TrEMBL record:
The keyword Secreted does not apply. It is found in: Encapsulin nanocompartment. This is Linocin_M18 bacteriocin protein. One of its GO terms (cellular component) is encapsulin nanocompartment. Keywords: Encapsulin nanocompartment.
Amino acid sequence: MFSKDPSELIRKETMDNEEIGRAIQLSLVAELDAINFYMQQSKIMPEGSFKAVHEDIAKEEVAHFGEFMRLLFEYAPEDFAKIKQGWKEASGMLSSSDT
């Protein structure tokens, strides 16, 4: 499910800022994979506690995604700024399509 093998990030020396940014991006990918996995599983489960637990775990993964976004803001501000730019662009398109 990972876009890159996370074991490549294991090392003895400290990561530099660029590597920290990549590690955070990889963590974001992992959280999105987890959200999708748990939601896909819940879609094919019968109603009941097992399904409910999967849906609850998926919601927790969304919170984890938010935590990693906060880390991205702190450690990779250029990447976070691009996300904000994309948000603004999409918001402009959405508001202009409402008229």
